[in-house]
Amino acid sequence: MMRFPSSLLPGTPTRLGAHWDGMGVNFAVFSANAQQIDLCLFDPRDRREIARFHLPEYTDEVWHGYLPDAEPGLLYGFRAFGPYDPVNGHRFNPHKLLIDPYARRLTGPISWSDMQFGYRLHSPRADLSFDRRDSAPYMPRCVVVNDAYEWEDDVLPRVPWDRTVIMEAHVKGLTMRREMERNPQPGTFQALGAPEMIAHLHRLGVTTLELLPIQCFAPERYLLERGLTNYWGYNTLAFFVPYAGYLANGSPHELRAAIRRLHKAGIEVVMDVVYNHTCEGSELGPTLCYRGLDNAIYYRLVPGNERHLINDTGCGNTLNLSHPRVLQMVLDSLRYWASEFHVDGFRFDLAPVLGREPYGFDPGSGFFDAIIQDPVLSERKLIAEPWDPGPGGYQFGNFPPGFAEWNDRFRDTTRRFWRGDAMQQGEMAARIAGSGDLLDKRGRRPWSSVNILTTHDGFTLEDVVSYAGRHNDANKENGQDGHAENYSANWGVEGPSDDPAIVNLRGRVQRAMMATLMLSHGTPMLLAGDEFGQTQDGNNNAYCQDNPISWLDWDRAASPEGQVMIGFVARLSALRRAHPSLRAARYMHGRHHPLPGLADIGWFRRDGSPMGQEQWGEEAFHLLGVRRASTDTHDGVDVTYMLLNPGGDDIRAMLPGPEGRWTMLLDTTSPEKPETVLDEGTKDVVVPAHGLLLLSLAPDAEPDASLGGDAP
């Protein structure tokens, strides 16, 4: 066992956290209001405390000290001394062992106990009381690490935004039930980087894998008491630590190896990150890290009533990114994942919180300014979830250039349009065109709209066409959690059906919606499992279901129906790659003409005539036709025509100009039908009920200047 000195050397405040320099370890932790911070060291064999030191120096609100001869593998934690004065926002309690906010590895799980609360949990004085019991037996230990890893020739794929196809997936849910030849540990990063998973992503044309939270998170105590857990992981404990549950052998190098394999296959990895709140909850929550180090700094407090935390997140607390040290922690964390794990980008959960200053949401807030000017982070893919429960929480379209945004307007409109709701044609047209009505400003491009049809939060695509209402009884919240309005339809039977007519109709609607997603301008995002009919049995809020409700059923993928849908999605991806008009790099408004008389985008009626302004408001409208034209890499012009029929009857539709030979690229009602060249001079086509057709014009077609079409 290491022999310890009587006290620490001064060390340096410049790098927060615990850093080994080859001769020892420097410890530095921020706290503006603490009066003393102790470093506690632990025996790796039995987890007992074996040494305790005061951090001897306090510089620029950073407590620091240096332990000579210490090496990676050392276990440690902090205790913070200061006022316990909840009324004024201070909650220091040295009886509570604290995690280092900059810890890069933890050993051991949280074992929930009353001792982790800074106050007596059942006291009539509530959080104004004080708990003197030691929480150390129930807390994980921080581990000093050496991040050295041999990346060799790893190169970030840097997939252009206009060629990006995202799949959102959960590490465990994606891999838990997938059989693989080399027997990687199911549900871990090992399985994520397996050849079978990479082959599946390649077949689908997925370029970018967006992973639900992989930073260390903690399940809520109340969920564990119900026999449930926080499966999704939106409850961060440590912002620099990979979640141990996804590590087969405990080494973070498993994540690095998976990313390296995905990069070698040309696939990017984007992390879903939660910097809006922590797992410590409200002022009545436990003291695990940030609350004990400096509650009044790390969290936003209610002005004039500092005992209480602002809850803009709906999760009990809100990180105070207006403070430079909290902002620094978030930026340091992002750079750590980008540099030490070669992550390709970040999706920011509840992103308005990150830009909310005391006076409200500001696209020029310190957080956004810092990200945009950062030489590392500004080159990564940045995606915002543009809503939160706080005041002014819906901010879609208001994020600064450089950020893409999840587009819930696309989701809701597509579902309503294909359900047959009236008066959706104008809204659907705007979403197909990349939502330029909301995003085309400040030089932003169509890729800024991340078009979503389904996500982890809500129904799967199979359930969108199988359930009219949510069925969340398994969550043990009286079935009232989750979104009440899903714009779904069961098409005659609630839940599974063996009626061939209903099964056929559901399949038609699913494929039509999937085609709308993949063939619209913007960045398409698939939900893992939608490509083969994954169901959650009508649960639209499976956040606590770490079981087959959420794990992908790969038997469905192997079924004949699953293989047809997988092939269909792969075909959509191939069409998107092959036709520039389907993935426009710039917004189309009908004002640019790739050829004389041929507008870049035009909208047409069933008789082939351009849509007039008066037609957009027709309540009995049942057909939408969009022609798009774009120059290709060979200086030619790619022209496609897409027809959408959400109604229950087939519709004969005239083809618009220019005249020429058309090819039927896709009929969503016949997913395996190959491309077909139509006869010369074909003037019309039949658009099947609940179907979408996609046609392309031979490149030698002559433009007809009389047919332009009006942009919506």
UniProtKB/TrEMBL annotation:
Protein name: Glycogen debranching protein GlgX
Cited Pfam families: CBM_48
Record family assignment: Belongs to the glycosyl hydrolase 13 family.
Domain of life assignment: Bacteria
Keywords tagged on the record: Glycosidase, Hydrolase
Residue span, Glycosyl hydrolase family 13 catalytic domain: 164-576
Biased composition (Basic and acidic residues): 471-484
InterPro entries xrefs: GH, GH13_cat_dom, GlgX_Isoamylase_N_E_set, Glyco_hydro_13_N, Glyco_hydro_b, Glycogen_debranch_GlgX, Ig-like_fold, Ig_E-set
SUPFAM superfamilies xref list: (Trans)glycosidases (SSF51445), E set domains (SSF81296), Glycosyl hydrolase domain (SSF51011)
Keyword Amino-acid biosynthesis: no
Segments crossing the lipid bilayer: none
Stretches the record annotates as Disordered: 471-493
PANTHER family: GLYCOGEN DEBRANCHING ENZYME (PTHR43002)
SMART domains from the UniProt entry: Aamy
